[in-house]
Design a protein that fits this description.
There is one protein chain. The chain is of the alpha+beta class and about 70 residues long. The protein has one domain. The protein contains two helices and three strands. The protein has a three-stranded antiparallel sheet with strand order 2-1-3, with helices on one face. Strand 1 and strand 2 form a beta hairpin. Helix 1 crosses helix 2. It is globular, with a radius of gyration of 12 Å.
């Protein structure tokens, strides 16, 4: 793959915080922050979302704002 292909595969830890694992994935096909939030809320039903490197901080902020700190 060419260029900047770093993204985060996002999971929820036991304490309710987000864990981002750096992975090689085309940012073009990464989930939006809104879609990632939806997929995280439905954990167990879907594969973990993958977000662009640049969207990681926004995802963490919006997750905390929603009060999703508890599993």
């Amino acid at each position: 793959m060419a260029g900047n292909t770093k993204c985060y595969r996002v999971t929820v830890k036991d304490d309710g915080t987000l864990h981002g694992e750096v992975t090689e994935f085309s940012p073009r096909f990464a989930d939006s922050v809104d879609m990632a939030l939806t997929r995280l809320q439905r954990r167990g039903y879907m594969q973990p979302p993958i977000v662009k490197f640049s969207n990681w901080e926004e995802l963490q902020r919006r997750w905390a704002e929603q009060g999703e700190v508890q599993p």
